Amino acid sequence: MIPTDFYRGRRLRTSPAMRELVRENQVTANDLVMLYFVIDTDDEDFKKEIPSMPGQYQLSLKQLEIKVAEAVGNGLKALMLFGIPKTKDEMGSGAYDDNGIIQKATRMLKARWPELIILADTCLCEYTSHGHCGVVKNEYVQNDPTLNLLARTAVSQAKAGADIIAPSDMMDGRVAAIRAALDEAGFINVPIMSYAVKYASSFYGPFRDAAEGAPKFGDRKTYQMDPPNVREAMREAAADLEEGADMLMVKPGQPYLDIVRLVRDNFDTPVAVYQVSGEYALIKAAALNGWVDEQSIVMESLVGFKRAGADLILSYFTEDVLKVLK
User: Fold this and answer.
1) Which residues are annotated as a binding site for Zn(2+)?
2) Cβ of 115: how many Cβ atoms within 10 Å?
3) pTM of structure
4) What is the pLDDT of residue 145?
5) Least crowded by CB within 10 Å, which of 84, 103, 181, 221?
6) Higher-confidence position of 83 and 5
């Protein structure tokens, strides 16, 4: 005779309604941040698909507004902007130009959607002629001289209306420099979401196509984190919090779920995770070839971020997911 006193977990899986009732983690519109690439161009109709990121585009201001309008209609709460300037120079001056592309895009979006949360990627790599995230001397990125430019960039972005400043450069001390500059300029209530744990990952390749910001020499391994390291991630996160960060980000996402969990368990601040371009491209390629069901695998990956402890998810799939949630 079969015993009947064993655990029967299937009782809570008997129907979709039952499974939803007891579901431990779920993704909502409040968890998601969409990412957009906006280009400074005189062609209002400019919309160019990124070959390595099918379904993602470089957009003029007008086309950005059209895309965001649709996403807001589907429940978009927050977005992050990456800028592609008309010209680049050694010092990345387009990043802290009050009439730069990110500043123009931010003003435009905030004028139409005041409640929409805009995160500004605060870095120089998209604006420098050499493609690195800071001031370069003898083909080496200089840490401290870069801090002043990052601080100027953050203040310019805040003046344009950015709700959250998100430094992604990985220079030592940049959070402290940005916090001091924001406070001095009167932006005491503008929070900083630090790319605290940003690895020198192979998953960034498609982004460099999208933002036209690949390094012209060398790589970024002297300032982004070494992928095998774990304890270093805790030091970076602790340092950024001590300097004034309000939120912490882990980047990339899927290969670093262990880091997301460690950050969540060790710090009580909001934690964000960035499902980066390479993660997007891999899923897209498999889906376009009919090897996986895109919708189900995307939702499963996002729930994985939530289960690991992420509060916010930056994902290029956000627009598609919002349609599913709606």
Assistant:
1) 123, 125, 133
2) 8
3) 0.93
4) 94
5) 221
6) 83
Sign, CA torsion 118/122/124/125: negative
Structure tokens at 74: 């589907």
Strands 53-59 and 32-39: parallel
Could you tell me what percent of the chain has a pLDDT over 90? 85
Which residues are designated catalytic?
198, 251
Strand-strand pairing, 78-84 and 32-39:
parallel
- What is the per-residue pLDDT for 231? 97
CA distances from 243 to 98, 128, 177, 193 (A): 26, 26, 8, 12
With 80 as the cut, is the pLDDT of residue 218 above it?
Answer: no
Confidence of residue 270 (pLDDT cuts 50, 70, 90): very high
DSSP 191-240: -BEEEEEEB--GGGHHHHHHHT---SSS-STTTSBPTT-SHHHHHHHHHH
Domains of the chain in start order, with CATH, are: 25-325 (3.20.20.70)
The span from the CA of 304 to the CA of 136, in Å, is 39
Looking at the chain, the whole-number percentage of residues with pLDDT higher than 70 is 100
Binding residues for Mg(2+): 236
Q: Which residues in 6-41 are b (16+ Cβ under 10 Å) and which e?
A: eeeeeeeeeeeeeeeeeeeeebeeebbbbbbbbbbb
- Known binding-site residues equal 123, 125, 133, 208, 220, 236, 277, 316
* Token code pair at residue 224: 């982004």
